[in-house]
Amino acid sequence: MENLEGEQELLIVEDDEDFVALILKHLQGKGVAFDCARTVDQAKEFLAQKKYKAISLDVFLGKENCGEILRYLKDNQKNENNQAKVVICSAFANADFMARMADKGYTVFSKQSQSEAFFQYLSQLVEKDIKEEFSKALDELLF
Predict the structure, then answer these.
(1) What pLDDT does residue 37 have?
(2) Residues 109, 117: contact at Cβ < 8 Å?
(3) Which of 70, 88, 111, 127 has the smallest C-beta neighbourhood within 10 Å, fewest atoms?
């Protein structure tokens, strides 16, 4: 578990520490607070305790399938995180999988061929939220 002070904006569900380090490198300096879960159970624990703006998922955590996390979000309507933006980045993301997940409303990237696009998308997603919050706060101060 790793986090920064402040509101938890991002839950990273990933067992590859090198990939987590790359995600954090791309988010460095953007003021993003995060938690990192390395197992399905740990991810569910975070989701039960905190609200996130976005969730980054790997499809497989060792032998565990992150589809269980997606079902958890869908089946637990009282969980505030069922409205969080879910972004999937996996070594197992082929065209068929990506199309099926897109039909369900998820954004999917392949680690092999689209990791840079994934990092940019995640950064823009978080920056967009930060800019919107800043704009709202500025409006409240001015009006």
Answers:
(1) 94
(2) yes
(3) 127
The pTM assigned to this predicted structure is 0.76
Per-residue pLDDT tens over the stretch 19-42: 888 888 888 777 778 899 999 999
Q: What are the boundaries of each domain within the chain?
A: 10-142
Nearest to 7 by CA among 40, 42, 50: 50
Query: Which residue numbers in the chain have pLDDT < 50?
Result: 1-7, 130-131, 133-139, 143
